[in-house]
Amino acid sequence: MKINHQLCACVAAILLLSGCKPDTVEQSAAGTAVSGKPADLSGIWQLAKPITALTTTDGKAPPLLPEAKQLYDQRQAARAKGDLSEDPAQLCKPLGEPRAFLEMGWPFQIAQSQDRVDILYQWNRLDHVIPILAEHEPLKGPFYFGESIGSWQGDTLLVDVVNIRPESWLDPTGLPHSDQLHMVERLRLTDSNTLEVSMHFEDPATYSVPWDTVLTFTRKPDLKIAEDVCLERIDLRDRYWSLNNALKK
Amino acid sequence: MTRTKVSKADKFFMLVGMLCLSNAQAQITPATEEDIVEAPGAFQDQLRGKADKLNVSKGRSAQAAKAEANAPKVQAPKQSGAPTDLTGTWRGGGLSAQGGKDMTVQGPRPGLRVNTKVETSRICYPYSGLVPATTTIYQQGDLITLVQDSQLRVRRIYLNAQHAQPVVPSYGGDSVGHWEGDTLVVDTIGLKGPLQVLDLDIDKGNWNFLMTTPTLHVVERIKKINDGEQLEHQITFDDAATKMQTYTITHTFKYAPGVRSNEDECEDASEYFGPQYPAELR
User: Fold this and answer.
1) A84 CB near a chain B CB, below 8 Å?
2) Contact B89 A116 (CB under 8 A)
3) Residue pLDDT, tens place only, A147-165
4) What is the pLDDT of residue A20?
5) Are strands B174-180 and B153-159 parallel, antiparallel or unpaired?
6) CB under 8 Å to A78, separation ≥6 — which residues?
7) Lowest mean pLDDT among A4-13, A58-67, A204-213
8) Predicted model pTM
9) Which of B218, B152, B1 is nearest to A248 (CA)?
């Protein structure tokens, strides 16, 4: 019997390759397509270095449109004079993101399960709830933290945020946005103790072009989130100032 | 340096509506001038101007229920069968019109301050989260986190740890815990502020507050029941200094994956009842 070696080689190759399937995209229990396993982002995190004013990834000021720049300059001028009366944080209103990531350099906790991620801030116990979902639902908002949905893209948590209240500031300096803002956040570990949060902003009513920024956080395993009640803190501060002023007279 | 004008009073009482509990159905009375004793200046005008618009019979419970109904439907995973895994979202049933069906009490009721209308000693200050509001539980190592979306209540229970020395009083208290078989036992001290206690009076529309003392001691026993579909939460209060007799309330929760409450915006006084509040009442 003559053996066709070439045919055997082809058959062997076919049999071999048939066992090499491309990575299949698994469906999570939440019905969201995922690739690979989610990373574990849970833990206590804090800014690697304090940031007050957001810049783009190439270190420039965000590309504000002229009218928005005017508003921003007004806010800056007020801050320079010590006038915080227009700052929503002084009224203890929810900060939204990314300002909550930056405020006072305070830490936050990420808690996650298969169908939900919570970013729990020390600042006034704010909570950014991120359900793992495939599509936005038509919730009536807007919301300070927007309406968020999350999905895992490999080891990165992708968070899509819309329906954001325009009263919030993007950072403590007063960087504005409109109700058209669409944010996309990408959270991933660059190593076991470093969390990188990349943020993409699209807001044609406020910015001339979309822009990006990156924030880096360090894991703080020995740090406990303290209880902060903003109204109590502001009240105590104002009492101190009142007393201080009274003593000066 | 220009500062926001503030009041001088030690405390301010504002009666502007219902506290942020997702299933509560207490009645609300409108805020009156004498109710608004003191408030930060930034809030006073808002409260006075909007006070007449805050007289809503169902208040936040209706809005919260609507928010839950509108919340994205998630095909969430079943609760794990592991007896020491409490991860998931649990909806408290003890506040429903079923009254005592989802809660029981034992022992003589302590000197609770009963209120037939909402009384907030400090509006938007967090009442201690020992109420059966919708709760999401996370477990990571020796840290168990209980998140109640309403009123931004977050409690952290540190397993196999000792209480802080000294304890700094807080609304959430200082909680340490350990497992006894399949039961999570939590020991809490260092509570401050009025402690909202939802017991059998809730179905009469009464809100009860236990005034905390430096010696108030709370022990909770939390475990899954009914094949992991329910959570039993037993809360026992005692206070050696006041000689308060042990009082125990037991609530049950149902596993409710995907349910979440409205974003809490309590500090945003002009929209106190959340973003789904009817526009005409804002």
Assistant:
1) yes
2) yes
3) 999 999 999 999 999 999 9
4) 40
5) parallel
6) A84, A85, A86
7) A4-13
8) 0.77
9) B1
Give the residue on A whose Cα is nearest the Cα of B268. A93
Residue-wise pLDDT tens digits, A79-138: 999 998 889 998 888 999 999 999 999 999 999 999 899 999 999 999 999 999 888 877
Q: What is the spatial distance between Cα B122 and Cα A183, in angstroms, rounded to a whole number?
A: 35
Q: Between B14 and A109, whose confidence is greater? A: A109
Cβ contacts of B149 on chain A, cutoff 8 Å? 127, 129
Distance CA B139, CA B126 (A): 23
Tokens (6 digits) for A234 = 């502001």
State the nearest Cα–Cα gap between A62 and chain B, in angstroms.
28
Q: Quick one: tokens of B272?
A: 């106190």
Residue A124's contacts (CB-CB under 8 Å, 6 or more residues apart) are: A92, A94, A228, A229, A230, B152, B267
CB contact under 8 A, B124 and A242: no
Of B6, B170, B268, the CB nearest to A238: B6
Q: For residue A241, which residues of chain B lie inside 8 Å, CB to CB?
A: 3
Question: Which run of H or E residues covers position A128?
Answer: strand A127-131
Specify whether the CB–CB gap between B261 and B64 falls below 8 A: yes
How sure is the predictor about B101, in pLDDT bands with cuts at 50, 70 and 90?
Answer: very low
Q: Tell me which of A81, A238, A241, A244 to substitute to probe the interface with B (most B C-beta atoms closer than 10 Å).
A: A238
Which chain A residues touch B145 with a CB distance below 8 Å? 109, 111, 118, 120
Mean pLDDT, all residues of chain A: 86
Work out the average pLDDT over B28-37: 37
**pLDDT value at residue A8:** 46
Note the residue count of chain B: 282
Question: Three-class SS string for B175-201?
Answer: EEEEEECCEEEEEEECECCEEEECCHH
Per-residue exposure over B25-36, b if at least 16 CB sit within 10 Å of its own CB, e if not: bbebbebeeebb
Select the more confidently predicted residue: A109 or A6: A109
Please count the residue pairs, one from chain A and one from chain B, whose beta carbons lie less than 8 angstroms apart. Answer: 137
Side-chain-facing half-sphere of B133: CA atoms under 13 Å? 31
Of the residues B2, B263, B270, the best mutation for testing chain A's interface (the one with the most A CB atoms within 10 Å of its CB) is B263
Chain centroid to Cα B88, Å, comes to 18
Neighboring chain B residues of A113 at a CB cutoff of 8 Å? 87-88, 136, 138
Burial (Cβ within 10 Å: 0-12, 13-18, ≥19) of residue A171: buried
A233 touching chain B per CB within 8 A: no
Q: How many percent of chain B have pLDDT more than 90?
A: 24
pLDDT for residue B55 = 31
Rounded Cα gap, residues B161 and B8, in angstroms = 41
Judging contacts by C-beta atoms under 8 Å, the chain B residues touching residue A229 are 125-126, 171
> Rounded mean pLDDT of chain B?
67
Contact between B275 and A81 using a beta-carbon 8 Å cutoff: no
